[in-house]
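To: structure desk
From: M.T.
Subject: fold request, one chain
Message: Could you run this one when you get a chance? Sequence is below, nothing fancy, just the single chain.
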Amino acid sequence: MQIIAHRGASGLAPENTLKAMAKALELGASAIEIDVQAADGELWVFHDRRLERCTNGKGVLTEQSRSYLEQLDAGEGEVIPTLWQVMEIIAGRSELHIELKGAHTADAVAALTRRAEAELG
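Reply: Done. Structure tokens follow.
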């Protein structure tokens, strides 16, 4: 049986945050599922279309600036991580299952995945 940490260890840490990813790895999850959206030239690990449920922000994630998204609290002082930040923390220690959210994410995720394979293993 494969144990997949949904949005990281989302029952023990704020979902889709680096804290949730680290906890999933600590617990030995063989795979981690995350959600990815594009906004302001970056790939963000975030599930919902809107920011209100999981952060102290407001509005649609894809309509926000990088500077706004970087300063939001995603729970317990965590920020919304980028896909690259999540890839760095996982770095071959677990499978990574990426759910693409919204238009125009596939090509960017594929390119970043190739970079991660080359740089992180």
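Reply (cont.): The chain has a mean pLDDT of 97. Let me know if you need anything else for the meeting.
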